[in-house]
Amino acid sequence: MSEKARKLFDALDLNADGTLTRAEVISALRTKGPTLAARGDLPFWGLGDADDSSALFDAADQNGDSVLTFEEFAAVVDRRFGW
To answer: Where's the EF-hand domain (predicted)?
Structure first.
């Protein structure tokens, strides 16, 4: 798992509980996405609308419990973002 994935996960974990919900991912990417991209913590092409964020969440939610662990998240973003 990459350090970039950890940094991004922590930035999206708005309530700092160690997991991500769909609403958290959508909200965090909407509010923090441009800043994260400008710092190099998220590819600019990774910014999208709520549908794109929701699709990223669905791709990562491997066990279908509607909550992302760091491991689920990192497996998808490392592959998708080429980290």
So the answer is: 1-35, 48-83
